[in-house]
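Incident log entry.

Two folding requests arrived from the same account within the same minute. Monitoring flagged them as a possible duplicate submission, but the sequences differ. Recording both here for audit purposes.

Request one:
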Amino acid sequence: MLLPPMGLFGAVVILLLCTTAASAAVLQNGDFESPPSNIKLNSTAPILLSKNNTIPGWSFNGTVYYVTGGPNISLPGKGHGILLGQNGVIRQTIKATSWYADYILTFTIAPMGDNCSASTAVNVSILQPWQATCSVFLVGRRKTESWETHACYLGTWLGDDKPVVLEIRSEPAKSDPNVTCGPILDTLILKRIGTPRYYANNMLSNGGFETGPAFVSNSSSGVILEQIYNPSDHFPNSPLQEWNPTGIVNYIDAKHFYVPEGNAAIELISDFARIEMKRVLREGPTYHLAFVAGDANNSCIGEFILAGYAGSKTQNFTFHSHGNGSAHNFSMNFKADPDFISNFYPVTSVGFISYKGSQAKDGTSCGPMIDNVVMLDSSRGLKARLQTGIMFSSLALLAVLLNNVK
C-alpha cells in the first residue's frame, strides 16, 4: 500500500504508529518469588547473599538479604522480598523495544521491623542511556500494614533496543547503625504508557486519572505517587501522566475504593497535598472547569476543604464525608492567567489542593477523592467541539485502516 507524501497526514500516521506500539520492556522476577541459587528456604530468617548466590533477573552489590514474609516482616501476599542493607543495591538490565514510550515502576517498600523505620528509604534510578532518579521514603500512614506501595516515573525510553539499567539502592540513614536495617522491596511492576490522548469533550488529557502506574493485585491501599523534582522543569513528569503530585497523593483503584467513573481516581491524603498540571491557554476566553469530589469509601469521616485553582483564581469547596463513598459535582469559571511564558506560549497552572483531610477508623490518614476533571473553552461553543470530534473520529478511522494493512 502506497502512502501519500509526508505532511500532516504523514505526521498523524507516525503518531498513531508510535502510540499503538505493542511490545514493551519486561521486568524479570519482579516479585522475587524465584529464589537465589544455593540457598535453602527452611526458615523465615533473612539470608545474607554472597557472590555464590545469584537472583534470577537481578545482580546485586553490598549487603543484600533474601527475606520471607512472616511475623516480623510484613509483605503483600506473605511472599518473598529483598532487604537492602545500608550499602545494598540491586540492578536489572532491561531491553526496551517500544519506540518513544514512558515507563513507570510500581513497587512495595517495607521496614525490617518497628525499630528500623528510620532506614526505610530507597533511591530508584535509570543509569543508562538516559538519566532518571526518584527517591522514595516510607510515609508510614497505614496502621494495619507496615508496607506501602509507591510508584516512580522512569523517563522516556527511545526503544532502539539499547539496554536500560534499572538500579535500586538503599538510602543511608546515619541515625541507625544496625546493618540489618533497611528497606525491603517486593512486587516490582514495570508499566509502559503511550503519549497523552485528547478527546473532543475535554481540553485536559488524563482528566479521569486513568493513565497511571500499575496497581498491585493483592494490595488494597492504593499507590503513593512520587514526583521527580527539578526546579528548572516547568512540565515535571510523574507516575500520573500529565499531573504533578505534591505531598502525599494516593492513586486508588475501583476494585478497592469508590471511584465515580472509570477504573482510577486520586485521593489527597496530607494537608496541603496538591495535584496540578500546566496548560497552554489563550488569554481572553472564559474557561469552565468541572470535577467530581467526594470520599473513597474507606471510612474517612469528617469535613473536607478542597480548593480548585486555575491561574490566579482559587475557589474553595467544602463538603462532609460519611466515609461510605460519595460524589459531588463542582465547577468554576476562570480566565487564563499565565504563570510564565515558555517558548512564547502562555502557560497556566490548573489543579487542586486539600486544606483539610481526616483519619479513617483504623487511624489511617485520608482525604478528599477527585475524579473526572473536565475543562472547556466556553467561548468556542458547540461548533468547535463538533469539529474536534470529527477530527478525532477521522484519526480513529485512520488507525483502524492502518491496523488492517499487512
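Request two (distinct sequence, not a duplicate):
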Amino acid sequence: MGRKLSGEAGASEPQPGDRRWRGNQPTGSPVVSEEPLALLPTLDLRQEMPPPRLSKSFLSLLFQVLRVSLSLAGDALVSVYREVCSIRFLFTAVSLLSLFLAVIWLGLLYLASPLENEPKEMLTLSEYHERVRSQTQQLQQLQAELDKLHKEVSTVRAANSERVAKLVFQRLSEDFVRKPDYALSSVGASIDLEKTSHDYEDRNTAYFWNRFSFWNYARPPTVILEPDVFPGNCWAFEGDQGHVVIRLPGRVQLSDITLQHPPPSVAHTGGANSAPRDFAVFGLQVDDETEVFLGKFIFDVEKSEIQTFHLQNDPPAAFPKVKIQILSNWGHPRFTCLYRVRAHGVRTSEGDEGSATGGPH
C-alpha cells in the first residue's frame, strides 16, 4: 500500500529535477524507475512517527511509579516515626524501671551490710538437734528450781501464817496504839453534854425534816467515843474553837491523849482543813469546877492519822473527867470535825483515890 501511495505521489507531482536526471542519462542506458528511490525516505519517516506515543506512555508510567514510590516512602517514614516514638517511650520506661531497681538494690545493700559483719554460722542437722536438746535440758533445770522455790515459799507461808494472823489481830485489837483506852463508850465512857460545845448546824441545808432525829445527818458528840472512823462519821462544832468533856469510867491517872482524823487522801473534800490543829487537855476534879492543865499540843495532819501526845500529869493525879479544848483548825472557815479521842493511863482503886486527889495539882 505504501508503494501505491508512493507511486501516486510520484505521478501526481512531477519535478523538474527528474527531467534533468533523465537528460543527463546516457542514451541507450536502461531507464531506472524512480519509485524505489522516492519510497525510501517516505518509509523512514513513517516508521519514526510511533516513538512520541511510546515516550508519553513511558513518562506516564514513570510518573506513576514515582508517585507510588513517594507514597510508599511517606508511609515508611510515618511508620519509622511511630517506631521511633514507641522506642523512645520504651526507652523511658526501661530507664525508670532500671532506676527503681537500682534504688531497691542500694537499699538492700545498706540493710544487709550490718548482717555481713555478723559471724555466719552454718549448723548441720545433728548440731542443731544437739543445741535444741541442750536448751531443753536447761529449761527443765530452771523449771525444777522454780518448783523447789515455790515449795519453800509455801512452807514458809504455812509456818508463818498463824503467827502473822495473831500479830494482825493483836495490832487490830490494840488499834496500833498499844495502850488501853478509857474514853471508849463500850467500857463506860460518856459525854457531858452540859459542858460540851453545841453541834454545828448547817443553815443552808437545815430543812424541816432534818430537825427530826431520823432525818438529821449531823452526828452527836458521842461518836468520838466509837472506834468506827470513816469520812463523815465525826462530831462537828461551829467555828474553829470548841471543847468536849468526857466522863471516864472511873478515876484515871491520865498519861496520854490520842487524836485520830482520816488522812487527806481519803477525804471527800480533797483535804483535811476541818481537822483540829492546836488543842489543850485539862483534867476535871469531882466538883467539875477545878481544871488541871495537862498540856498543849499540835495535831499535824501531814504526819499520821493517829497521833498520841504525852500529858504533863506529874505528879500523877486521877481525874473522873477529861476536857479537850480545841483552839484552832487547819483552815476551815465554818466548822471543825473531831473524829475520835482516846484517854490512856491507869485506873485507880477506891483506896488510891484519896491519896491521888490529896496531892498537889
